[in-house]
From TrEMBL, chain B:
Membrane association type: Multi-pass membrane protein
Recorded GO CC terms: plasma membrane
CDD domains documented for this protein: TM_PBP2 (cd06261)
Gene3D superfamilies with a match to the protein in the record: MetI-like
Record localization: Cell membrane
Protein name: ABC transporter permease
Pfam short name (any one): BPD_transp_1
Family membership: Belongs to the binding-protein-dependent transport system permease family.
Organism in which the protein naturally occurs: Mesorhizobium helmanticense
Keywords, ordered alphabetically: Cell membrane, Membrane, Transmembrane, Transmembrane helix, Transport
Superkingdom of origin organism: Bacteria
Segments forming domain ABC transmembrane type-1: 109-320
Gene Ontology biological-process entries: transmembrane transport
Length: 293, 333
């Protein structure tokens, strides 16, 4: 409880959480806030109209309400980023804990794999893997409620962004496994698997959480960039896809600041929230970062 | 320090750095090969344009033999591919028929090198100076402003900054061009041409720089904040050094270590920033080529770009690892 009070004491954490709750609220019930996602067929406004009373954030190049698009975009962008992070954390923690706990040859090979993903940035890998898997899966249909392209992006970001977390988890595991409670559990007859899950994993939660918040911010950045390059899905537009559509419609040279401004500010707000939360978590749990009076 | 027999001697350390770089590069090339073969359909048919062209079965078979596609995938085709890649032969583009991928990439490379090189240079120089100053005067007014702005910029996609710059400086104010690299009719090599080129370069470079600078500030500041609480800084003060001497002799060099590491960790952002910003400004570099290749599903070009990016990242890591050994004597031991 002391840690929670300390965490909530940081101004950055408060700001980040407040902002995040707002966007998660929008993402949870977009239909209740702005009605169903507008399409070119149901568009209600003029083309590229500036903000006005009916369209608070103006309209896009086919007359769709930008507020409507941005609120629905929150659902898609946040879902992609959070699911990709879950994949990244599960993979990263599993590999890091296994490598650190077993050591020896297992450690050497797993860390060699980790080194590759540590050196190669998620964006660069995703840039070449995503189009290939899009071609393999085709663009039609849905997988678990996602258009195939979004599903591919989630998995690719998740599978390419775990290396940093793995290194943190491994180094923590190396020190945890020498502690007496692990020896005690082993003497009591616990299996390796049970020691890892019941004794080591709970002690890794602070580091995983602090790293996880930064992984979300990174995932948003990569998703936005990939979608901007046209790898998103226009039928389920994320904020990055909206920026891609704005670019193709020439919004910048037409001076349509509202069209590109709204999705961009949302990306910044959410990404900044996660960075602030991650930094606050890191300050809370990392003794090195405690301010020396 | 004399060799004590603990740890590897320097030459062995350097050898290991090179070996690791070579292994990573091999993995990049292998991934390239595997990915290309996951794509459904016969590679020969893909290369010949699929069903769109009228190729007889005999011609197809002849080409398959010609390209070695009738031989076993492993080891024959893998070895062929790796050796061709090593010789700079990345095959032919799908979109630009009959053009070598390596030619297409080399043609576009100078524009990207100019953009990224200039942006990195400005971002590192300004970012590190601002960050070190903010960390040195931690808690001051400058620190608060610089740190706040850096965190915001760190969370901002570079290409969005680019679009914003176009709206403000190109569309609204009309000061700078927001599209392409040259004005029509410019004569290559003249002074006017250079000025015109630099005017076109201004907004893209600003966008990439602003997208990168935040991270350098944050890391340089954190490094300096850590350094100023170290015991050797207390010792330095006890020796009677003034603040300027403490900064130059003790703080600066130690605070630079994390910054050097960041330069390589940051490469993903550099690549993402450059490619997307080039797409905004129709800058005729690798980023523009990437977007064209993505839209046309031009896999050979995409493969070539991936190999180029992979090789650049591996080389950058290699240089950093070697530089780290020079900067930090502890690594050598």
């Amino acid at each position: 409880m002391g840690f929670l009070r300390k965490f909530l004491g940081y101004g950055g954490a408060q700001l980040g959480l407040l902002c995040l709750v707002f966007f998660l609220g929008l993402a949870a019930v977009p239909n209740a806030v702005v009605g169903p996602l507008e399409t070119a067929g149901t568009a209600s406004g003029d083309f590229l109209a500036p903000p006005q009373s009916q369209h608070l954030l103006g309209t896009d190049e086919v007359g769709r309400d930008v507020l409507n698009l941005v609120v629905h975009g929150a659902r898609i962008s946040l879902t992609i980023a959070l699911l990709a992070t879950v994949i990244s954390l599960v993979v990263g923690t599993t590999i890091g804990m296994t490598a650190g706990y077993y050591g020896g040859r297992v450690d050497v090979w797993l860390m060699r794999l980790t080194d590759f993903f540590f050196v190669m940035p998620s964006f660069v890998l995703a840039l070449v893997i995503t189009p290939v898997f899009l071609q393999v899966m085709g663009r039609g249909g849905e997988i678990l409620g996602f258009r195939p392209s979004l599903f591919v992006i989630i998995v690719v970001i998740g599978m390419t962004s775990w290396a940093f977390g793995t290194r943190i988890v491994r180094s923590q595991t190396l020190s945890l496994k020498e502690r007496t409670f692990v020896d005690r559990a082993r003497v009591a007859g616990s299996s390796n698997f049970s020691i890892m899950i019941r004794h080591i994993l709970p002690n890794l939660v602070p580091q995983i959480a602090a790293n996880g918040a930064l992984v979300v911010a990174g995932a948003i950045y990569v998703e936005t960039s990939l979608s901007f390059l046209g790898l998103g899905d226009p039928l389920q537009p994320s904020w990055g896809t909206l920026l891609s559509l704005a670019q193709r419609a020439g919004a910048a040279s037409a001076g349509a600041w509202w069209y590109l401004g709204a999705p961009g500010l949302c990306v910044i707000a959410v990404s900044l929230s996660f960075v602030l939360i991650g930094n606050a978590l890191d300050d809370t749990f990392n003794p090195r970062h405690r301010v020396i009076p | 320090m004399a060799s004590t027999g603990i740890g590897a001697p320097k030459s062995q350390h350097v050898g290991r750095i090179f070996l690791r770089a070579a292994v990573t590069l091999l993995m990049v090339a292998s991934l390239n090969f595997i990915l290309f073969r996951i794509i459904p359909g016969d590679p020969a048919a893909l290369l010949l344009g699929g069903a769109r062209t009228s190729v007889t079965a005999e011609q197809m078979e002849a080409q398959r033999q010609n390209w070695g596609l009738d031989r076993p995938l492993f080891p024959d085709q893998v070895v062929d591919y790796l050796s061709a890649s090593l010789h700079g032969d990345f095959g032919y583009s799908f979109k630009f028929r009959g053009r070598h991928v390596s030619d297409l990439i080399l043609e576009r490379l100078p524009a990207t090198v100019a953009l990224v090189g200039l942006a990195q240079f400005i971002a590192i120089l300004c970012g590190v100076m601002l960050g070190l100053y903010a960390g040195w005067r931690r808690g001051g007014a400058v620190d608060h402003i610089v740190t706040g702005a850096s965190l915001a910029l760190y969370s901002t996609p570079s290409f969005w900054l680019g679009m914003l710059l176009v709206v403000i400086f190109s569309t609204a104010l009309g000061w700078l061009p927001g599209y392409g690299a040259y004005s029509p009719g410019a004569i290559s090599g003249s002074l006017d041409w250079l000025i015109d080129y630099l005017r076109h370069l201004a907004l893209p470079v600003t966008a990439v720089t602003l997208g990168l600078i935040g991270q350098y500030v944050v890391v340089a500041r954190a490094a300096m904040s850590d350094v100023v609480t170290e015991d050797y800084m207390v010792t330095a003060r006890a020796k009677g050094l003034n603040r300027g001497q403490m900064l130059m002799r003790h703080a600066f060099r130690n605070a630079m270590l994390p910054v050097v590491t960041l330069i390589t960790l940051n490469l993903g952002y550099v690549v993402a920033g450059a490619i997307t910003v080039e797409a905004v400004f129709a800058w005729p570099g690798i980023g523009g080529l990437t977007v064209e290749a993505l839209n046309a599903r031009d896999y050979p070009v995409l493969q070539g770009i991936f190999l180029l990016l992979g090789a650049s990242i591996v080389v950058a890591n290699l240089v950093t690892d070697l530089a780290y050994g020079i900067l930090d004597p502890r690594v050598r031991q």
